[in-house]
Amino acid sequence: MNQTIETHLQVGSAGTSEKKLFTFGEPPGELTLESGARLGPITIAYETWGELSPARDNAVLVAHAFSGDSHAAGYYKDDPPGAKPGWWDSLIGPGKGLDTDRCFVICANILGGCSGSTGPSSINPRTGRPYGPDFPMMTIGDIVETQKALLDHLGISSLLAVIGGSVGGMQVLEWCVRYPEMVRAAIPVATTMRHSALAIAFNEVARQSIMADPLWNRGNYYDSEPPHLGLAVARMIGHVTYLSDEALRRKFGRRLQDRERVGYGFDVDFQVESYLRHQGSKFVHRFDANSLLYITKAADYFDLVERRPPARSIRDLTGAATRFLVISYTSDWLYPTYQARELVKALKRVGLNVSFCEIEADCGHDAFLIPDKRLGSLVGGFLDNVRRS
Amino acid sequence: MNQTIETHLQVGSAGTSEKKLFTFGEPPGELTLESGARLGPITIAYETWGELSPARDNAVLVAHAFSGDSHAAGYYKDDPPGAKPGWWDSLIGPGKGLDTDRCFVICANILGGCSGSTGPSSINPRTGRPYGPDFPMMTIGDIVETQKALLDHLGISSLLAVIGGSVGGMQVLEWCVRYPEMVRAAIPVATTMRHSALAIAFNEVARQSIMADPLWNRGNYYDSEPPHLGLAVARMIGHVTYLSDEALRRKFGRRLQDRERVGYGFDVDFQVESYLRHQGSKFVHRFDANSLLYITKAADYFDLVERRPPARSIRDLTGAATRFLVISYTSDWLYPTYQARELVKALKRVGLNVSFCEIEADCGHDAFLIPDKRLGSLVGGFLDNVRRS
């Protein structure tokens, strides 16, 4: 095992990538969403790393989390000096856990997002104006259907693996339930098979924060000032749930910002306040408030256990050949390890081949995004085994 | 021990109580706050239950939590039928943990509050208008000083006990540090000796939510519509932190509100959403947004460990005769048991007599407010011991 680990150290950069667009579902061939609404045409922004093998059997789909995008690794050609690489650059690249010398890695911005794929801020072809609140409510299953359409377009009918964390992990599981025959290996990370009341509660507070901002204007703000204050508070709520008590103590404790004593006012006193305000105000420049509303709703709807047929649930995976590596983090209290164990149990109950690893980390839910060789080693070793089998 | 427990079952009602007002600190004799600001006159609303003994040695001060008030037990004379009793009615009354046949129980609305005591919504005598943002920033120590003035007024120079949960527990600890010779027994419940980064983070998000509401108007809203939307979101944030993952699962799970299926819209789908919205909208009719801002700040400033002399810290309790009963709850993640243990350690380090009890409860921080015979039994038994010693 140690030898396997050693071969998956983070060694190279995934290099540059380019955002590409794929459009499908022109009327009358729109996508019928789980709600019954029809949506189309749909554009999906995606990026790829590595080369598709002649046998077309080395594709890995990376599913991003709620506020992520298609830029999972490497740099853009026109990145300014000092730009940060993609959000999972520590995992994707030559010699890394998702080894781009061997895999063809694909990551697409999710439906409902705001980084190139069709979402509430996109132009509604029927009106020539942004969808806003006319964007239909969607589900994790709908997101998966758009990814399936993209793979069809790329000529990929089998995936070596689907991997993703948090809301990305939900997509992984939904893939397995919808297209088990297409997925050789699934790696759900820091996620759950059914969104808990606590997670719904935090999402609902975030949504209410946006909706309380008068600039939200029932979702019609694309011609005016956007609801930045409400969105910033929503992001601050999210950020607290991504961290852990321990991480906050270590990172900030009760340290004061810029002064010797507390200020006895409502300006920032503590570093943790400054951090949260910064996270909130940074976020509003890159994310759309309506996207947050729709994507959190999709996550809240996610439940692989109780589903009305004909929707497939986790029980319908009986007999699937997909191999699972389930990963959780010790200090993640948004999608805690006990929920990962419930997932493992449910998968084993229907006879699947499941490996499970809880990674010791004190940084909360965010741990899956923080560069850590252990994740790369686990993923690389697991995929080696899958290839050999 | 079991016999002691049996004698403290919840047996009687505390009967009716009446809100009384005490005013002190007329200029030029204002109270000098910890910040250096001067405030006066100050009115404190308080209620009492039971009779002060001729020896004046049976007084128990109950300190309320952030959104509480002086109405800790019993009913008001003019309560409509079906009205709820005070917030700690399960603990206060004849034969209960705080036995009003034996104790004289006092509870005062805290400084900065909005239930009769001077706070940001009170009239500033200098302007004839509500203080609003001119209300001075205050600390837990300042709250204790107003309680001390009330006790002086009532002719009470020694307390059988001070007891309180959450922010009330901070007041208990501050009492011990400021007036150790006055406090025979201290019962800090579900609290901490220094507000953690996580707790500060949640308070800061709640504050930002209020300040993001344009109706807040920098605290000047008493002549106009108050910032109810921002305050409701702030309350929702608080409510999530008062519960636990387990309690939310048990109480709500993923149960839907009023329907067979999800609604694919932004109306309430899940019961937990309905519950939070209800908590938020109920709160705005009884609480002042500025009070929330000032009281959360006082909690955030609370740190009994690192203080600049001459302010007294927990180390200055060396040699005090006060006996402690520290109580925490297993599922409280806002003020977790490890923080109670740190408190116990710090008290023992300076040689104090400390009992500690962690109560098994799955309902989170709120546990201390939920009627539970165990709390009454612990408190009653502890006070029996204190009386005997």
Briefly characterize the structure.
Chain A is 32% helix and 17% strand. With 389 residues, chain A is α/β, with parallel strands linked by helices. Chains A, B: Keywords: Acyltransferase, Amino-acid biosynthesis, Cytoplasm, Methionine biosynthesis, Transferase.
Q: What's the topology here?
A:
2 copies of one chain form a homodimer.
Chain A: H1 2-6, E1 16-17, E2 20-24, E3 31-32, E4 38-39, E5 42-49, E6 59-63, E7 75-76, E8 92-93, E9 98-99, E10 104-108, E11 123-124, E12 129-130, H2 140-154, E13 159-165, H3 167-178, E14 183-189, H4 197-211, H5 228-242, H6 245-251, H7 271-283, H8 289-301, E15 323-329, H9 337-349, E16 353-359, H10 373-388
Parallel strand pairs in A: 1-7, 6-10, 6-13, 8-9, 13-14, 14-15, 15-16
Antiparallel strand pairs in A: 2-5, 3-4, 5-10, 11-12
Helix pairs in contact in A: 2-3, 4-5, 4-8, 5-7
What are the key terms here?
EC 2.3.1.31 (chains A, B), 8-stranded mixed sheet, globular, HAT_MetX-like (chains A, B), Rossmann fold, 389 residues, Rna Polymerase Sigma Factor, Chain: A, disordered N terminus, homodimer, alpha/beta
